[in-house]
Amino acid sequence: MNMKLKICPRCGSSDIEWTLPQNWSMCSCNDCSFTGPVIEADKQTQKKLQKKWAKKKHKK
């Protein structure tokens, strides 16, 4: 059974928190400062996003 995690759609981090508890769909990522809806994904998808984000950061 694959466990689903709530992760940032930009960088794949699970270090996220609600911006406003009243608005449960809006979260903020503590790693990349993304604010918006998060996604639910498995560990494999999380690792792919993190790898993609790392490549993107090194290009800048």
Structure described in brief:
Helix content is 28%, strand content 23%. It is an alpha+beta fold and 60 residues long.
Detailed description of the structure:
The strands form two sheets. The chain has a three-stranded antiparallel sheet with strand order 2-3-4, with no helix packed on it. A two-stranded antiparallel sheet has the order 1-5. 28% of the residues lie in helices and 23% in strands. The chain has 60 residues and is of the alpha+beta class. The chain has one domain. The N and C termini lie far apart (38 Å). A hairpin with an 8-residue loop joins strand 2 and strand 3. The chain has one helix and five strands; from the N terminus they run βββββα.
Topology of this protein?
Blueprint: E1 5-7, E2 16-18, E3 27-29, E4 35-36, E5 39-41, H1 43-59
Antiparallel strand pairs: 1-5, 2-3, 3-4
Quickly list its features:
60 residues; alpha+beta; two-stranded antiparallel sheet; 28% helix; flat
Helix coverage percent: 25-40%
Oligomer category? single chain
Q: Give the tally of β-strands.
A: 5
End-to-end distance, in Å?
A: 38 Å
Structural class: alpha+beta
Largest sheet: 3 strands, antiparallel
Principal-axes geometry comes out as flat
Number of domains: 1
DSSP strand content: 15-25%
Rg from Cα: 12 Å
Name the average pLDDT. Answer: 89
Question: For the largest beta sheet, what order do the strands appear in spatially?
Answer: 2-3-4
Secondary-structure element order, N to C: EEEEEH
* pLDDT < 50 stretches: none
Q: With helices defined by DSSP (H or I, 4 residues minimum), what is the helix count?
A: 1
